[in-house]
Amino acid sequence: MCVAIVASLGVLVHPVVHLARTASRESAFVRLTPAWGPDGVEDASRLDSTPVGGIVRVPAEQDAAVELLRRVLVDARARHVPISIAGARHSMGGQTVTTNGIVVDMLPLRGMVLDESRRLLHVQAGARWEEVIPFLGKHGLSVSVMQSDSPFTVGGSLSVNCHGWQNDRPPIASTVESFRLLLADGRIVRCSRSENAELFAAALGGYGLFGIIVDADLRVVPDARYRVEHMRVASAGYVAALDARVRSGPVALAYGRLNVNRDHFLERAVLTTYVRTSDAPPGEPIAELAPWAASLERWVFRGSQGNDYGKELRWALETNVAPWFFARTTHRNQVMQSRVQLYENRDPSRTDVLQEYFLPRGRLEEFLGRVRAILAPGTADLLNVTLRDVRRDGDTLLRYADTDVMALVFFFSQSRTAEAEAAMQALARELIEASLAVGGRYYLPYRLHAAREQFVRAYPMQAAFFALKRTVDPEEVFQNQFYRAYGPSPARSGP
Which residues, 6 or more positions from 231, have their beta carbon under 8 angstroms from its beta carbon? Predict the structure, then answer.
């Protein structure tokens, strides 16, 4: 009996001590805000500080904002100064900034109006999803497609053509009825599938290179109540398991997480599905996690950084405890209102970087086999891999989903040193090659690690994309670091 008690206590002591050490370490950090000023602008990666010529913050009133932007455009063209467009700055490779250029801060422009009868949301580009979600919730409605976190802006999400946990859905472009675009010559044009259709396809997923998205009309859906189901499955059977779940019930949201432990590395997954049970009434509450629960969730995640035991503990908790600990029912807006504060890095000496790859659904395991060989133990500190189901994108020009794909989001931790960045670039290029080898692509809002020839191979439509950009914006007023790295000369400055 005594031996059993001692053994039981031993099982509990290790995770408690580990989480206590993590909590102690985390208590020494404060939340980090990327630098934002003329001397240097950072994005979410905090790996580059880009000097800019100035920052223009638009007023909240739309007519005044447009008038100011037109003056900025006239001045920029006269002085041959490039302009880039910023919102929440959650991209990681300078997609919202240009060296010595003017950065337009769109955050104040965040008004929204709902046409309830048509289920159409008119929303300004600077609005964050965390503001949109409760606004729609008052009317019993929800966002159709968005990222898995809510602090991003509508304009930013449209500019990267985001996707999320919305099962069996194309990217966000599929939900756009129309948007208004401020061009380099000061004109505002409405873009839709029938009006300025070329610009519609190019500016969605166009990274701010064709103009400034002022506002958009988005199709929305009813908020709904869900039953949450979890299933453990081998990675080789993930797609089949997802499809079987979808066939057995109205699955509205779904995602998977792969095991990142040394044992069975990337060979096992947890599939989480949200099965619709009924509509949610208008004003369904969106509950915040209790402070202790939020802290615990954060410690479990951050405790996996650079720590094999932490990774094992997180997987054990997610597969064995979380399905019982967390609610088994929820509603759509509750799931959508997710906060990055639960996992974001606060250690000033390190940063988190994302990479994302899109694979034809039938070649997921082939890709994972290549990844396992590349990410040998000790190669990189991989904290998480999320799986998402994305359907074919028939709307955009620079599209990442030519067919139905599985999206894999890799979440790495790295030091903020030149050596660590060089190592991560080399690793990213290997992973890009692995995705290209199975007919896949990589996502563009992250670090500019891809070689130019890899970008061209992954996005063969890039020539038409840049040709249209030069037609619409012949003076190349709208630029960013992405354009300078991969666009045509003379804007190119990267390798």
Answer: 241, 245, 270, 271, 272, 273
Of the CATH numbers 3.40.190.10, 2.60.120.10, 3.30.70.920, 3.30.70.2520, which one belongs to the domain with range 224-446?
3.30.70.2520
Please give the helix or strand (H or E) that residue 230 lies within, else none: strand 224-234
Instruction: Give Dmax (Cα) for the chain.
Output: 84
Pick the closest to residue 167 from 53, 99, 244, 101 (CA basis).
244
* pTM for this entry: 0.95
Question: Long-range contacts for 390-393 (Cβ within 8 Å, ≥24 apart)?
Answer: 390/163, 390/169, 390/170, 390/171, 390/358, 391/168, 391/169, 391/170, 392/170, 393/161, 393/170, 393/171, 393/173, 393/174
Domain segments of the chain: what residues? 109-222, 224-446
Output the CA torsion sign for 56, 60, 63, 64. Answer: negative
Q: What CATH number was assigned to the domain covering residues 109-222?
A: 3.30.465.10
Q: How far is CA 328 from CA 274, 325, 355, 477, in A?
A: 9, 9, 30, 51
What letter would DSSP give residue 86? E
Q: Is the Cβ–Cβ distance between 423 and 375 less than 8 Å?
A: no
Question: Beta strands 102-105 and 83-86: pairing type?
Answer: parallel
- Measured between alpha carbons, how far is 99 from 234 in angstroms, rounded to an integer? 46
Q: Length of the chain in residues, anyone?
A: 495
Per-residue pLDDT tens over the stretch 284-339: 999 988 888 888 999 999 999 999 999 999 999 988 877 666 678 999 999 999 88
CA separation (Å) from 329 to 150, 217, 269, 324, 418?
20, 31, 21, 11, 46
Parallel, antiparallel, or unpaired: how do β-strands 212-222 and 120-124 relate? antiparallel
* Residue 229 host element (H or E): strand 224-234
* Complete DSSP assignment for 179-204: EEEE-TTS-EEEE-SSSSHHHHHHHT
From 186, 175, 169, select the one nearest 68 (Cα to Cα). 186
Beta bridge partners of 254: 273
Establish how many alpha carbons lie within 13 A of residue 409's alpha carbon, considering only the half-sphere containing its beta carbon.
Answer: 21
pLDDT digits (tens, 9 = 90+) for 380-414: 999 999 999 999 999 999 999 999 999 999 999 99
Positive or negative torsion for Cα 131, 136, 141, 144: negative
